[in-house]
Amino acid sequence: MGTYVAHRSAPATRYAELGDTQLLGLFSTDRWGKLSFSEKLDACQEVENRYAAAHNCEPCTVRAEPMTGATFGYQNNHSICLNEGVVRDGVFLTEDVDENGATVLVPVDVRASNWQTLETVFHEGTHGIQESRGQMPGTYFDPESDYDIYRIQPCEKEAFQAGQENTLRAIAAVQAAEGKQDQNAADYVAAVKAASYEASL
User: Fold this and answer.
1) C-alpha to C-alpha distance for 92 and 57, rounded to whole angstroms
2) What are the φ/ψ torsions at residue 133 (nearest 5 degrees)?
3) pTM for the complete prediction?
4) Residue in 152, 182, 154 with CA at minimum distance from that of residue 168
5) Are residues 111 and 194 in contact, defined by beta-carbon separation less than 8 angstroms?
6) H/E element holding 191?
7) Nearest alpha carbon to residue 79 among 131, 39, 115
8) Angle, to 10 degrees, between the axis of helix 185-194 and the axis of helix 113-132?
9) Could you tell me if 43 and 27 are in contact, meaning their C-beta atoms sit under 8 angstroms apart?
10) Which DSSP category does 2 fall into?
11) C-alpha angle 119/7/3, rounded to 5°?
12) Which residues are registered as beta bridge partners of 35?
């Protein structure tokens, strides 16, 4: 993320005084599960504050809301909204039907949810930068309509690349600082390969 000067409108967090590697270390598998929900959101907000400032943009406000399906989050109107189930419990909530025909929500574990959450902040933060620079397209394909077309759109290609590269760098920095392999690192790398641009292309 690098050295930066926070914009006046950056939401204050409890982690503003941490160094970059210390901040990213909060997403390590050993630490992430010990953070409260509000601490996790604060860590995400601090990452967004620094990422936006490094690109000379106003940061998005990070929040969370309940979502169903395999959705990590979205960015809209200078706000990053994260999937509450992924951040809080490391699960997607998928709709199913029970034996009585009633719709129920079933939790499905998300591999490397800590690093996937960090990637989502970088990914959606990139959309915030694109939005602030007027670079979002007038015509946009959402993943529900056609995932492969969605994935290869220039704005999404850039956001996926930024999210993945920044997260891989974060994992490397945290592992170097802690002197050990993060137990979710391999799962995150596998998820990156599964969602590759080349596969959709």
Assistant:
1) 31
2) -100, 5
3) 0.90
4) 182
5) no
6) helix 185-194
7) 131
8) 50
9) yes
10) -
11) 60
12) none
